[in-house]
Amino acid sequence: MELPAGDHGPSPLTGYTRAHWEAAADALLAAVEPYATPDRALYHLPGDRRSWSGHLSDGLEGYARTLLLAAFRRDETVLQRYADGLAAGVSGAWPRVEDRSQPLVEAASVALALRLTRPLLWDRLDDGVRQRAAAWLTDALTAEPWPCNWELFPVTVGGFLAEVGHEPAAAHRAVDRGLARIEEWYTGDGWYTDGDGRKYDYYNGWAMHLYPVLHAWLADDEKLLDLYGGRLERHLADYARLFGGDGAPMHQGRSLTYRFATTAPLWLGALTGRTPLSPGETRRLASGALKYFLDRGALDERGLLTLGWHGPDPAVLQGYSGPASPYWASKGFLGLLLPAEHEVWTAAEEPGPAERADAVTPVVPANWLLQSTSSDGVVRLHNHGSEDVRWDPYYTRLGYSTVTWPVPSYDNSVFLDGDPTRTDIEPLGVGEGWAASRHTAAAGARVTSAVLVRGAVEVRAFLVTGARPRTPVRVTGWAARDGLRAELLPAVGLDSALTGATGEGATLFVALSRLTGEPQPVALGETVTVCAEGDRELTVAWAGGPGLRVRWPGGAVAVEHIAPA
User: Fold this and answer.
1) How many domains does the chain fold into?
2) d(CA 159, CA 164)
3) Are 320 and 53 contacting, i.e. CB atoms less than 8 angstroms apart?
4) One domain, residues 4 and 24
5) pTM across the whole model
């Protein structure tokens, strides 16, 4: 994709300006246009992949998600094409919105796009088309959503229908019901779980925050905006730390094929004035993510977004992923709602958190520990609290990063008797330089895990209980990637192959780990000293810095900081 030179001069970082974002949006919209049906109601993108919702629903998805991009771009010529498609769609081309059906998701994108572009699209439609469109959307007010971020789709539709005066009482009920539902999943400090359980991932930003904050902003409801905008602002303080120095978002969670949709909450904070980030930092993080994917094959030779991460990659897909699913990346163009003179476009880019200094950041609600190093821009996420109700390698591993991704050989895992099972994850705390959890392993054994970090170095400790004696244990670390050094050394209870065996009771295993882009780092074994006192206490002394003492009293984890020796 050829992008123009910036209109405010180059920055020393990505150099991306509003002109680059506009050109990217235009190219994406032009690339999908040949795949519209003659009536423009459906977009059937090429390929053999079909979602579990079927061909017709996939075609609606293609229309709705690219309409959202067109709404952010606000090009009247393009919007007219979508107006034609809307007229045909609500006249019988589209499937109905039913309980727990994919059209409910797409109805939210259609409604949001119509609300954002009302003077340019909705207000210019024939009255008959408006009535049919409102009737099609009305089913979303009462359709049963899945108990997760789907609760916000009726909210989004209801906000639009209330605004245009169509069944306002039902519309307001849908808004109130959905907003009340997500309160059950707000866990504090700007974080939601995506439904019951502990499912923490990017849905926090591109769904749980996006829809309520946009609704409050569009409704000009200061009370709601103070509530949801305040949560967004707190969330962004952590969220900004999930981007690597190369622009890569953290490789964790579901629906990673949405790619630069990860930038939506960054723009949302700037749009509503609810952000702790400077304008230059906002643009750096957002532009870095867009550039990261455009530079790494996210688009095929036709200019279409592929089903994958860099290029095509079925490993990051779910059953609901259809040919047009990646176009929820359209949310990443939310920043185009900001006028050209807005300071987020005119300010010089500023380095993001991962570029400025080494940092270790506890994320208390998710029981995550974020570890970043400025020398290589790598961000690592130590997962001691997030888990899907289904087994999913993008939720259950001990660690994720911006430069690696889960591999079939089970990186960042503990094997008991050859089984890497990690279920029923129980958070045990997170603090300055450490995080801990307990999980169920093979044959019902329990593993209490603690990670202690400084710089790029990690000490990983595992206390195994409930396993039969002499059960084989193996520990794995980071997956190797070109240009990176992934190291794992035995420290307690493990041999040079990172294997060991359980004893009669509780057995402690400790390994030193490091993932780094530094070409010649200090030898890993020289960075830290580890001393175990029995199977219930561990002392970690960092070279040139303070240490930590870890104890396992009664199955819990207690961590205290100690002065340097």
Assistant:
1) 2
2) 9
3) yes
4) yes
5) 0.96
